[in-house]
Design a protein that fits this description.
The complex is a heterodimer of chains A (339) and B (454).
Chain A (H helix, E strand, L loop, with lengths): L1 H6 L1 H32 L6 H11 L3 H18 L1 H10 L1 H23 L2 H30 L7 H29 L2 H32 L1 H7 L4 H5 L1 H19 L10 H21 L2 E3 L3 E2 H4 L4 H27 L11
Antiparallel strand pairs in A: 1-2
Helix pairs in contact in A: 2-4, 2-7, 2-8, 4-5, 6-7, 7-8, 8-9, 8-13, 9-10, 9-12, 12-13
Chain B lengths: L2 H18 L1 H21 L3 H34 L1 H35 L6 H30 L4 E4 L2 E4 L2 H5 L4 H31 L3 H35 L1 H8 L5 E2 L3 E8 L4 E8 L2 H7 L5 E2 L12 H30 L6 H9 L5 H13 L4 E3 L3 E2 L9 H32 L3 H5 L5 H12 L1
Antiparallel strand pairs in B: 1-2, 3-6, 4-5, 7-8
The chains are: A mainly alpha (339), B mainly alpha (454).
């Protein structure tokens, strides 16, 4: 029995597709709040406020970014054929994202360490790098959804919308992160940012949800077929429910004892997971929409098994110490100090 | 230029710039751990001053290493799809294990190490420092296993143009791995040592002597004085290992055009690939054979044995000499320092100035050494298995040249910012704890801070 499972190539391919999806989702959530805070830092009223914002993500961003390396690594290792097609189609947006990530990442350190003449430039680089990264990732996601065929006006509009949507989504989770991690004026400001982003996100989710099945007939057929439609409508209904909940909650925050300051952040995670599940359902079992199946792209063999076993052992440990780090820096952000 | 040349240039630019930073952090992590342990055992806060200054440098180097490293992880796919298609079964698990076991470990505990001093128990902070150093070294281990395997591949069979693994033990413990691993780790120790010594000398020259700077310099100069000769010895063993497994690389390093018994040691010359000879060469007869075969009349294979299969000679030949030259310079400087330490003399000004000029000198032999080994493997990407030309992608060369140009501009900006920030930090560094808070128990300070923040 175990022998047949081990030798079933399809089983392993789906397991890796799951791991890859999971890494990408975790990346989107974790680096999503980093990048969102980065974009919002543009609206900080003074240096003190932007420092507070930067401090709230300081201990985390490095590890958050590693999920991207893992996700792309799995794509590279487990689905080499899809990897080649995806990344050569996205050569320029990947490059733009990397430049954004470079400036965002180094700005963290340079803004606190460089001389006063250049400090301002690094604050700006932090914002610009975050925004560039978010837009480039949205562009990549949009191109991916329509199978890299960006020639008609409609497809261009669609990719553009997804690009903006992802940036807005990052702002939303970033603002909700700040609500959880800060107090006082900045927290009040974050609540306003969150409301604005939420309205933007509602428009974006609606546009993308309508645009995706229209731009892709296969997806249309997967969603709007009875009786599947009844079960599937649970996803948008739940999304609407959580969005409404967040909207009402944001109108009441902050409570005097800062109760529920964490709730908007958690709600955003739930909404993001719902969107992600919707997306995955639309494409499964394709790894490149309409072009290549997960099993076709898979490099299933004994080498993958070795990584899989390693991942099963290492991932729980990894999640364990990630949890530990979040616990260490739990609570409201204080000044980040080395000594 | 065609896509192949442009892609090679781009990869070279990216990895050269990337490795500047790991070459510091791999060893600097262990220096930090050492400073922390010294503090734990002596309770002398001067060690924490050193520790905090160098964690800042570490953080900066680490950030630069991470962001330039992410670029590398995309480059495999965007520019060299043939690599994974051919040897993915070997490279995949090694890279996968690097991410899973090392990247997450170092990145996660970095936060605790940098900002957790007042938030966690002292031993947890020491442990975090250890785990960051360990993670960095572990990551070096995996990537060097893969690189060494590309130089001396074994443990696979080729089936339909794809490498299929027969033995992981043979892959991991391939013949050049132990030498390359130790040689690279020691290179990092020297790079970090000269950075520490150089910046400390700079601080002395700017702000005058302090007790802390003196003890740091002493400790690290002694490390450098021991490690430099060790490194030269290991380098020699590494060369002999290459002679056995990649004789064409050694022939290019040594400038040996013809197979000869009693080959000379070419100290310097100008290799000419068209005429297949060295111009203006300065040679010691028979010594080349003696070094490589331990016999003055031993036979040394020349480049004539590897028609069209040997690397470009000039680049390998010059890079090798630059590396050796800097090795000798480091040896002279570190031993001179030990001489002053033994004589219990202050370091004279001219010596401090020389150390200051050598602050980033570790980068030069490290980079040159990597050029020797990587260019020395050409025209192969994986020795004898996959040619570089067969692995390159078919993206339009215009894309590669545009991105290459922007990368170079970005790297120039970052390089300038890094160097100027490092010296700016050194100028502003003060020994806060030891000067002002001498009497305060650090344990109390920590718990007080925790109370404030919670």
């Amino acid at each position: 029995m175990i022998d047949t499972i081990i030798h079933s190539e399809q089983w392993l391919a789906y397991a890796f597709a799951f791991l890859m999806g999971l890494s990408m989702l975790i990346y989107g959530l974790l680096d999503g709040y980093d990048l969102g805070v980065g974009i919002l830092s543009y609206y900080a009223k003074d240096k003190k406020e932007s420092d507070q914002m930067v401090s709230s993500i300081g201990p985390f961003w490095d590890a958050n970014e590693t999920w991207l390396v893992l996700g792309v690594g799995i794509l590279l290792v487990a689905f080499p054929k899809a990897h080649g097609i995806i990344l050569s189609n996205l050569y320029i947006p990947v490059f733009i994202m990397l430049i954004g990530l470079i400036f965002r990442g180094v700005a963290f350190d340079f803004m606190s360490k460089s001389d006063n003449r250049h400090k301002k430039d690094w604050y700006y680089a932090f914002f610009a790098g975050s925004l560039t990264t978010a837009l480039a990732q949205g562009f990549m996601l949009g191109s991916y959804i329509i199978g890299f065929e960006i020639d008609t006006l409609n497809s261009k509009l669609f990719v553009f919308t997804v690009s903006i949507s992802l940036a807005v989504g990052y702002c939303l989770i970033g603002a909700n992160w700040l609500i959880m991690k800060t107090t006082g004026d900045l927290q009040k400001k974050a609540i306003q940012w969150s409301k604005l982003s939420l309205v933007g996100a509602i428009i974006c989710i609606a546009l993308v949800s309508i645009g995706t099945p229209i731009s892709n007939l296969t997806i249309f057929n997967k969603w709007f077929v009875l009786p599947n439609f009844y079960y599937l409508s649970l996803i948008p209904l739940l999304t609407i429910f959580f969005v409404l909940w967040m909207y009402l909650l944001l109108n009441k925050l902050p409570y005097s004892d800062d109760r529920y300051c964490w709730l908007p952040f958690v709600l955003t995670i739930i909404i993001a997971i719902l969107c992600f599940v919707g997306l995955v359902y639309s494409f499964f079992p394709f790894i490149i929409p309409n072009e290549m199946l997960i099993v076709q792209a898979s490099a299933a063999n004994s080498s993958l098994m070795i990584i899989f076993v390693g991942a099963l052992i290492v991932l729980p440990i990894l999640l364990g110490y990630t949890f530990f780090v979040y616990k260490v820096f739990h609570g409201k952000t204080t000044d980040l100090r080395y000594d | 230029m065609d896509v192949l040349e442009l892609s090679r240039l781009q990869f070279a630019a990216n990895i050269t710039f990337h490795f500047l930073f790991p070459s510091i952090t791999i060893a600097l992590g262990w220096f930090l751990f050492f400073f922390k342990l010294r503090f734990n055992s002596t309770k002398n806060v001067k060690w924490m001053d050193i520790y905090f200054f160098w964690t800042k440098v570490f953080a900066l180097c680490f950030a630069l290493g991470v962001v330039t490293g992410i670029t590398m992880s995309f480059q495999f796919g965007t520019n060299w799809p043939g690599f994974m298609n051919t040897v993915g079964n070997v490279a995949g698990p090694l890279l996968g294990y690097e991410v899973l076991t090392a990247f997450f470990l170092e990145a996660s505990f970095l936060g605790v190490m940098l900002f957790g001093y007042r938030r966690v128990k002292p031993w947890v902070h020491t442990l975090a420092t250890f785990l960051v150093a360990f993670g960095t070294t572990l990551s070096a281990f995996w990537i060097l296993v893969l690189n060494s395997w590309m130089q001396t591949p074994q443990g696979i069979i080729m089936i339909e143009g794809e490498a299929v693994v027969t033995s992981w033990f043979e892959i991991i413990f391939n013949p050049s791995m132990p030498y390359r691993l130790i040689h690279t780790l020691l290179a990092s120790v020297l790079t970090a040592s000269f950075l520490i010594i150089g910046l400390s000398a700079y601080r002395v020259l700017k702000n005058g002597h302090t007790k802390i700077l003196r003890s740091t310099m002493k400790a690290v100069i002694i490390v450098a004085a021991i490690v430099t000769p060790t490194q030269i010895f290991i380098g020699d063993l590494h060369g002999l290992n290459s002679f056995k497994h990649q004789p064409q690389k050694v022939a290019a390093m040594e400038g040996h055009w013809e197979t000869k018994k009693g080959a000379p040691l070419v100290l310097f010359g100008i290799p000419d690939e068209k005429q297949k000879k060295n111009h203006l060469s300065l040679e010691i007869p028979k010594l080349g054979s003696y070094i490589l075969t331990h016999d003055f009349n031993g036979e040394v294979k020349g480049l004539d044995q590897f028609e069209n299969e040997h690397p470009p000679v000039g680049k390998v030949f010059y890079s090798f000499r630059i590396m050796v030259l800097f090795g000798l310079l480091m040896l002279a400087l570190s031993w001179l320092g030990v001489y002053y330490i033994i004589r219990k003399q202050e370091f004279p000004k001219y010596y401090l100035k020389m150390l200051f000029f050598m602050t980033f000198s570790g980068w030069i032999p490290t980079t040159a050494g990597w050029y020797v080994t990587e260019i020395g493997r050409q025209p192969y990407l994986v020795q004898g298995i996959l040619k570089t030309a067969d692995a390159v992608s078919s993206v339009p060369s215009a894309h590669v040249s545009i991105t290459l140009t922007i990368y170079l501009i970005v790297y120039a900006i970052l390089f300038y910012a890094f160097i100027s920030t490092i010296f700016y930090m050194a100028r502003g560094a003060t020994d806060k704890l030891s000067n002002r808070l001498k009497e305060i128990d650090l344990g109390d300070r920590r718990s007080a801070a925790v109370k404030i923040s919670s």
